[in-house]
Amino acid sequence: xxxxxxxxxxxxxxxxxxxxxxxxxxxxxxxAQIPDATVxxxxxxxxxLSELADRGVTTCSSEHVAxxxxxxxxxVRKDLSHLGSYGTRGVGYDxxxxxxxxxxxxxxxxxxKVIIVGAGHLGSALAAYQGFGTRGITIAAVVDEDPALVGxxxxxxxxxxxxxxxxxxxxxxxxxxxxxxxxxxxxxxADQLVAAGVTSILNFAPTLVHVPDGVDVRQVDVAVELQILxxxxxxxxxxxxxxxxx
Amino acid sequence: xxxxxxxxxxxxxxxxxxxxxxxxxxxxxxxAQIPDATVxxxxxxxxxLSELADRGVTTCSSEHVAxxxxxxxxxVRKDLSHLGSYGTRGVGYDxxxxxxxxxxxxxxxxxxKVIIVGAGHLGSALAAYQGFGTRGITIAAVVDEDPALVGxxxxxxxxxxxxxxxxxxxxxxxxxxxxxxxxxxxxxxADQLVAAGVTSILNFAPTLVHVPDGVDVRQVDVAVELQILxxxxxxxxxxxxxxxxx
Lengths: 246, 246
Hints:
Two copies of one chain form a homodimer.
Chain A: E1 2-6, E2 11-13, H1 21-30, H2 36-54, E3 59-60, H3 62-69, H4 73-81, E4 87-88, E5 92-94, H5 95-105, E6 112-117, H6 121-128, E7 137-144, E8 153-154, E9 157-161, H7 165-172, E10 176-179, H8 183-196, E11 200-203, E12 216-220, H9 222-241
Parallel strand pairs in A: 6-7, 6-10, 7-9, 10-11, 11-12
Antiparallel strand pairs in A: 1-2, 1-12, 3-5, 4-5, 8-9
Helix pairs in contact in A: 2-3, 2-5, 3-4, 7-8
């Protein structure tokens, strides 16, 4: 599950990025604000629309987008209404226009530089991931504390020492950091990232990290994902045992 | 982001596991049902309570749990009310009782066997993950299609051929499968898992997989996570540019 965490505010949600209300609330109200639940779905629509465009499809219905993205068509219509109207009754949406509008909205027309901290299996898997480039994301640097790993190549990157973290963040103008370390290393790494100027963190370590106001954290905890599936497996089993109408 | 997908139902949510209404709706209403948003937070409470118990804490307040889990205390109280009352006014919750009750609710008193399909970097990272055992999850098998990998050891597991997938699922009584393959392999692997009897899938491949009714799918898409952070970075930048009150 990806959960945005900010223990300082003692609030947690699977949908809403927790923001510093004092810092950003007033600004957010002044600007057109897209609900975080919609923000979380826009990349799915973008992926679906890009696939449609690649297949030569020029117009599509909300049902079309819904099926391709695995979202209800009611959600699609509601979400896209936040971007302004790009649909024509009886014709549908212009695939290219809508794709470009979404890409612009989620900042994909920019190129976001990311640093990965931790070049173990997980960091290596992330560095080797093929899908980032087409989504406006570049892995600009990979660092590790293990001298045996420093200097090795990982796809287009050379693993550098974690001692260079701050210099690399500044050199590449990096705002987003990925923590791919064991749990014990997560908080010190988060501190280093924030000190270097990173303001968004994706944390794969199965532990909460505490960050100052203004820094966004999202957490991916694989064990939590599996536990949620296990809960539903248990319910399936208990309904079968009790002679459920399956 | 972990998103439960079931394209057949054309519905997608970051919170709710999508169920087959026709199959399970009636049963669900008959049994005590815990909202999926709560189910998603229970493992966090469990982790927090286990840490408190390890530190010798025997009673705690909802604020205590909230801080340790990074959740609002209002959410904690609401969520725990679904489990029955384990709190005493003025005293708080019994840490051990509450921990055991949550563990039972999410099926952690059972041992859930999991198969990982794909023994590349990601599959290796998952197989090496230390936190599963204490959460009732065992990686029972790891398979790959690459003959060069078959026979290698990965922690306590030996990588086996994907040809043995069905036999391994039956042998170990596996209900949960993890897809850690490239995108092109995800759907064929999902089909094989379902045919073998797996009814819950955690998909790390950045593509939707289609499954029959009664099978739960959760998807973790790292690029989507980063895109959500990028959207918020963009908003921070635009509010700074427009002379926001930071």
